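User: quick one, sequence for these tokens?
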């Protein structure tokens, strides 16, 4: 929904066509980030295990990362319940891949990612593991702050 300043009602800008995997639908869009370079929203569709781009004003999305059919996975190209998403100044994408207990990094324009925090499929409480991460934020030095949700903490990962 988009709400203009002082507005009492909003406008649907993405989805609004019921729950589902279709290109005009969203399925549990937990996280999103605005991409000013393309005037679009990058949306983490948790139930369909993918990241989609919805250009503002468009009536459908295009697939950015993950399966177009909603299949989950733990490879470098598949996700399992992506919840949080953020962009860095270069347009690279960081995804809190919650059920895989990891943060995936994707270079701008690429759909093949690298695990940069956590251990794929291995939840834990050590400083190198995550347990159901739900959000990721990148600061100006490209350090990561991750909501390590099931461990009830926020973890810091230094960019080196």
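Assistant:
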């Amino acid at each position: 929904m988009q709400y203009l300043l002082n507005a009492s009602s909003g406008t649907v800008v993405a989805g609004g066509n019921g729950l589902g995997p279709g290109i005009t639908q969203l399925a549990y869009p937990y996280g999103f980030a605005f991409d000013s370079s393309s005037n679009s929203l990058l949306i983490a569709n948790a139930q369909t295990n993918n990241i989609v781009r919805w250009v503002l004003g468009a009536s459908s999305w295009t697939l950015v990362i993950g399966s177009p059919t909603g299949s989950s996975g733990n490879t470098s190209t598949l996700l399992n319940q992506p919840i949080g998403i953020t962009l860095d100044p270069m347009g690279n994408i960081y995804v809190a891949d919650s059920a895989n207990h990891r943060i995936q990094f994707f270079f701008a324009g690429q759909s093949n990612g690298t695990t940069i925090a956590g251990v794929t499929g291995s939840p834990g409480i050590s400083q190198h593991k995550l347990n159901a991460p739900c959000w990721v934020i990148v600061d100006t030095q490209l350090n990561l702050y991750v909501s390590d949700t099931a461990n009830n903490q926020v973890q810091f990962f230094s960019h080196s």
